[in-house]
């Protein structure tokens, strides 16, 4: 299977029953895949008139009680922006599969890159956090899509699956019996007493009732109090935005996904994510075979930054090297976290995957610098 | 029936604002329909019309400018029994025009109220898509240069089956709203009204003038002849009930054998229409059936019917991390387009690389051992070259027996392609090689 097929299977496993999308390479096969599987399961697939309508329909369906997902690529994500901040501010569970392609702008439709790593985190108004999970292949696409739904439901926020062309459209063998299948989580519904749509307990996540259900529910994109009505009260506003930040960031230890391959005595830590992690793993094997000590960390949670994981992985080394399929994005987060350790960077955004040998050469150069 | 207005949030529109009349008219229509608050969803977006949802005690969904219909679509599809009303201003119609047109074409059972007061009231009275050319607006002269949009003519042309235009002062506004809410499909009510805060001062219009303006623009009364058709939600539900589950997610049991230790990467360099990706897929499926690990990357032009078509298939006895081919073990050369796209590979070939080369396709100098194939002399058409090359590939790499490959094809291909493909595989396997086969 390919990464997009694995996303479709993961979504169905997680209970997704609403998908809306607009055709765009390399995300289109998620739309066609969902169209094959959701209607027979009683779900709904909408090919919307554009990307704003795709994500808009998902927001409506999600607030009406269905688990919803949409999928796009860079130019489409640009158009999602206004509704992503709506989902953040109004606590609407949503999974967004972002199959990155080489950019900027229209870029290269059939070429991959990880150029939108910061765009996913910061590409909406207000600057509040979202969750971004990064698969390295189809097996991860399945597992992380399930985690994405679980987190969207648990935290009531948009969650990204940050795939890319070379993951989405490369077919490979997967032993599904060995693929991790996390238990499915549903959003917490309001049980008793008067319902205030944005009143949250200590977890910071409000209980849910569906729009269209037996109790009238207020939902708004505007700044609001716990009752869902527009407010200009500075204290209410500040407490809302702090809660929106807290409810996501305080939970990072429960969804810091990574692969950790330490080498005792290694002086360098190599950090990678996405498809580049596949080249990097091969490079690490070659480096070790040639006598170079390298520990290896693959991040599968990119945002919020799993700082504890990074700090712990970098603890024993003198240098860190980050490789990514862009001109240097996540490396800034790694630098911030492991400061003052020196952090080297190697990146390519030419539309092809980095080769293991290129990484080998860069690591050797960085080790000797 | 009691009012559905929100007792704790009385309307706060400007004194004399037409939106307040529309609000009460809609409430009366709900009452006459005997709707309970929880049976109604008001979906609004930005501007003064976006205040609407607050003043009802119903479900409320307030979103971004021009997008009300997108949210309403998701809500209605998820909650088919709800009465879903989208409320937009003329600003929302302008910025969300594509959504309006799509809703007309789709014909989901929604009611759209356009609170049309010819300007952006909340942001300074700028011209909107419906501002008359002779109006004075906050956008200075710009509206004099553009023709206003006629909402009713536009939505009717786009397929809306139920279209109403009324002045907010019209005696039968409640009746018309009631008809729109009852209509089982997409219903649009274009309500013309006055904006005392921003528009009226520079453009004095009396309620009587407003009736005259509507009369001149054309009264729309409801059903649009020729646009009536099946409602989208019910059609979807019916289709969904009959949709077969087409995905087969059962895995493939390894059953054949492969003569491979380590990795073997093959590049198929062809052109669109030569079934290069299908051949790559069959090569991969033969390996899957033999218990190997496989990756297949494809590359083709987005023009689809023209240009290069390339498959990169990597087989391995061990799990594959890096799914690329650094040094190909075999290159199948079928068309000039593929050769040109992969111009960078030729200096990476060694004497171990098998190059199966169509005799009419030149390649740059390389170190590989070449099996030159005259497909024309073999009477193998362009579209069959890739499939025939698999027979050669199997024989001269020795990874699969021809019988295993044939069985993989028989199990994988559609019945219509099967017999032809099996013949091509055997024909390819009979082509004499560059040296003696390993087995």
Automatic annotation (TrEMBL), chain B:
Alphabetic keyword roster: Oxidoreductase, Pyruvate
InterPro entries assigned to the protein according to its UniProt record, in alphabetical order: 2-oxoacid:Fd_oxidoreductase, Pyrv/ketoisovalerate_OxRed_cat, Pyrv_flavodox_OxRed_cen, THDP-binding, TPP_enzyme_TPP-bd
GO molecular-function term, one example from the UniProt record: oxidoreductase activity, acting on the aldehyde or oxo group of donors, iron-sulfur protein as acceptor
Residue ranges of every copy of the Pyruvate/ketoisovalerate oxidoreductase catalytic domain listed in the record: 276-416
Pfam families: POR, TPP_enzyme_C
Domain Thiamine pyrophosphate enzyme TPP-binding: 56-191
GO biological process: cellular respiration; small molecule metabolic process
PANTHER family associated with the record: 2-OXOGLUTARATE OXIDOREDUCTASE SUBUNIT KORB-RELATED, 2-OXOGLUTARATE SYNTHASE SUBUNIT KORB
Name of the protein this chain belongs to: Pyruvate ferredoxin/flavodoxin oxidoreductase-like protein
Organism, as annotated: Desulfosoma caldarium
């Amino acid at each position: 299977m390919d990464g997009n097929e694995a996303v479709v299977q993961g979504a169905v496993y997680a209970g997704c029953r609403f998908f809306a999308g607009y055709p765009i390479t390399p995300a289109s096969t998620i739309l066609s895949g969902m169209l094959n599987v959701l209607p027979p399961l009683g779900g709904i697939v909408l090919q919307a008139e554009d990307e704003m309508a795709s994500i808009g329909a998902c927001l409506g369906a999600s607030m009406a009680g269905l688990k919803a997902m949409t999928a796009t690529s860079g130019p489409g994500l640009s158009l999602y922006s206004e509704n992503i901040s709506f989902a953040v501010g109004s606590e609407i569970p949503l999974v967004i599969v972002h199959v990155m392609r080489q950019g900027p702008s229209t870029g290269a439709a059939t070429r991959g890159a990880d150029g939108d790593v910061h765009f996913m985190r910061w590409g909406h108004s207000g600057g509040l956090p979202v969750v971004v999970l990064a698969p390295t292949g189809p097996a991860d696409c399945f597992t992380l899509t399930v985690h994405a739904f679980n987190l969207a439901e648990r935290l009531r926020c948009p969650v990204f699956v940050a795939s890319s062309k070379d993951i989405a459209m490369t077919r490979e063998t997967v032993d599904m019996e060995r693929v991790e299948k996390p238990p499915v989580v549903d959003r917490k519904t309001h049980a008793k007493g008067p319902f205030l749509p944005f009143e949250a307990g200590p977890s910071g996540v409000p209980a849910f009732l569906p729009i269209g259900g037996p109790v009238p529910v207020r939902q708004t994109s505007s700044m609001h109090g716990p009752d869902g009505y527009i407010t200009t009260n500075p204290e209410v506003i500040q407490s809302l935005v702090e809660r929106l930040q807290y409810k996501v960031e305080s939970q990072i230890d429960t969804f810091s996904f990574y692969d950790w391959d330490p080498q005792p005595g290694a002086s360098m830590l190599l950090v990678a994510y996405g498809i580049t992690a596949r080249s990097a793993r091969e490079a690490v094997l070659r480096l070790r075979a040639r006598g170079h000590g390298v520990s290896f960390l693959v991040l599968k949670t990119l945002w919020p930054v799993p700082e504890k994981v990074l700090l712990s992985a970098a603890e024993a080394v003198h240098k860190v090297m980050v490789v990514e399929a862009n001109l240097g994005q996540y490396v800034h987060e790694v630098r911030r976290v492991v400061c003052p350790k020196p952090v080297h960077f190697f990146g390519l955004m030419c539309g092809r995957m980095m080769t293991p040998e290129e990484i080998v050469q860069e690591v050797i150069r960085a080790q000797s610098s | 029936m009691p009012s559905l207005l929100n007792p704790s949030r009385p309307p706060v529109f400007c004194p004399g604002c037409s939106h307040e009349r529309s609000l009460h008219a809609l409430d009366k229509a709900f009452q006459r329909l005997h709707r309970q608050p929880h049976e109604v969803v008001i979906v609004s977006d930005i501007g003064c019309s976006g205040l609407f949802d607050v003043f009802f005690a119903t479900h409320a969904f307030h979103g971004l400018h021009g997008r009300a219909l997108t949210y309403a679509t998701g809500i209605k599809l998820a909650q088919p029994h709800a009465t879903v009303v989208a409320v937009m201003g003329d600003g929302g119609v302008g910025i969300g025009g594509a959504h309006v047109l799509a809703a007309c074409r789709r014909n989901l059972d929604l009611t759209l109220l356009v609170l049309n007061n010819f300007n952006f009231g909340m942001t300074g009275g700028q011209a909107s898509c419906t501002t008359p050319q002779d109006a004075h607006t906050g956008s200075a002269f710009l509206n004099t240069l553009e023709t206003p949009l006629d909402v009713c003519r536009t939505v009717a042309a786009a397929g809306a089956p139920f279209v109403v235009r009324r002045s907010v002062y019209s005696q039968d506004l409640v009746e018309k709203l009631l008809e729109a809410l009852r209509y089982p499909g997409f219903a649009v009510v274009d309500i013309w009204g006055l904006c005392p805060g921003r528009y009226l001062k520079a453009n004095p219009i009396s309620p009587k003038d407003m009736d005259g303006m509507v009369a001149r623009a054309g009264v729309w009364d409801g059903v649009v002849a020729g646009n009536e058709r099946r409602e989208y939600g019910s059609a979807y539900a019916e289709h969904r009930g009959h949709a077969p589950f087409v995905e087969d997610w059962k895995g493939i049991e390894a059953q054949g054998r492969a003569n491979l230790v380590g990795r073997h990467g093959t590049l198929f360099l062809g052109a669109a229409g030569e079934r290069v990706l299908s051949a790559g897929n069959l090569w991969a499926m033969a390996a899957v059936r033999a218990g190997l690990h496989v990756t297949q990357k494809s590359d083709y032009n987005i023009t689809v019917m023209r240009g290069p078509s390339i498959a990169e298939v990597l087989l391995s006895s061990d799990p594959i991390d890096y799914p690329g081919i650094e040094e190909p073990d075999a290159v199948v050369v079928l068309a000039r387009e593929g050769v040109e796209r992969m111009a960078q590979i030729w200096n990476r070939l060694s004497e171990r690389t098998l190059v199966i080369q169509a005799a009419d396709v030149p390649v740059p100098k390389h170190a590989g051992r070449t099996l030159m194939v005259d497909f024309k002399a073999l009477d193998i058409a362009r579209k069959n070259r890739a499939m025939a090359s698999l027979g050669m590939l199997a024989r001269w790499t020795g990874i699969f027996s021809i019988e295993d490959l044939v069985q993989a094809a028989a199990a994988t291909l559609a019945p219509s392609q099967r017999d032809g493909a099996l013949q091509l595989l055997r024909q390819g396997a009979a082509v004499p090689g560059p040296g003696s086969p390993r087995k």
